[in-house]
């Protein structure tokens, strides 16, 4: 299947997992917001590391350790260029989005949050951008405030100025909603927050794989994402932080690598980025993530964005024609995910019937329970797209949903 911008049929061949059958049917993988599949380039990079130069980093003088260190640091430079960070030491490798947010909530929270202060989030956050802030607010006697959304699942921007008050110490929000597919007006949000000297943390877990993200252009103070959602391995992620912030904040975890000198009386911490990378890092993960980024650069994020946009418009059009289907989230500006319900049918039942037809979607609350409460629903059926999905995948999804509706109603 050739879309106007990408030769998807050719590109799919880079992903061995997509070739398989599930329940005797061609696999239609539409759970990309949960995790993406990995191209051969990533699998080969992992294999080469373990077969040829597996070694610990920043420690050995021997050749293998130097090779591993060089590859690990080259991965950092590659990530920095990918998000256009000013310095590669502004890129901290983490376990994923969740760990990046916990790192900032713990360090920033302990340093700057006082009794009576607040942290602002939005109504469409993933649990990982809610719970860490709740924990630190509770510890510090601070309040968690929430920017609401309208019925379409779009942020009520008119309420933002009042919420950005002089007690607000940080605004943490998602770039793209994993449940609704809403793309937030991140530039406007950051301009407003910075207009009041409030720093921002951008959860880009559902953005970096769908559109070009430039941290300098955004002027983001902190930005986080996960490797496994951008065609890289699990267990690796990125925290970007402006140098001025990362230099001011205290370290989070203590241990090897994050120190310059240690005595029983006093430890002198290492410089950036090592200050935030205690212990042996996920060397293979960083190398795999870097391979994923190089692979994506080869295709081009602009082409990916255009191709996915076209596919999502096609899917919306086709799904709209199904009687009894309601979309949850109707933002005009959207990426990645489409959530829906079929009249009175529980999302799990729809998901199960789709699985029988080889179609992998996610059902449930998608780690956004407060958002589901706002819509007064237990969850949704979510189809989420990657650049390797085709119109044929959408047609099979639509046929599958029609069949499920028939069988269950
Ligand atoms: N934020 C958003 C918007 C997400 O979609 C996810 C993953 N579903 C996360 C955070 C958490 O990512 P991870 O589990 O990889 O840390």
Instruction: Please state how the strands of the largest beta sheet are arranged side by side.
Output: 4-10-9-8-7-5-6
Estimated radius of gyration? 22 Å
| Shape by Cα distribution | globular
Strand content: 15-25%
Helix count, DSSP H or I runs of 4 or more residues: 14
Structural category is alpha/beta
Low-confidence stretches: none
- What would CATH call the homologous superfamily of the largest domain? Type I PLP-dependent aspartate aminotransferase-like (Major domain)
Q: How many separate structural domains?
A: 2
**For the record, what CATH class of the largest domain applies?**
Alpha Beta
- The CATH architecture category of the largest domain equals 3-Layer(aba) Sandwich
What hetero molecules are in the model?
4'-deoxy-4'-aminopyridoxal-5'-phosphate
CATH topology of the largest domain: Aspartate Aminotransferase, domain 2
Number of DSSP-assigned strands: 17
How far the N terminus sits from the C terminus, by CA atoms, comes to 33 Å
- Provide the helix percentage: 25-40%
The biggest sheet, with number of strands, parallel, antiparallel or mixed sense and barrel status, is: 7 strands, mixed
Q: Average pLDDT value?
A: 96
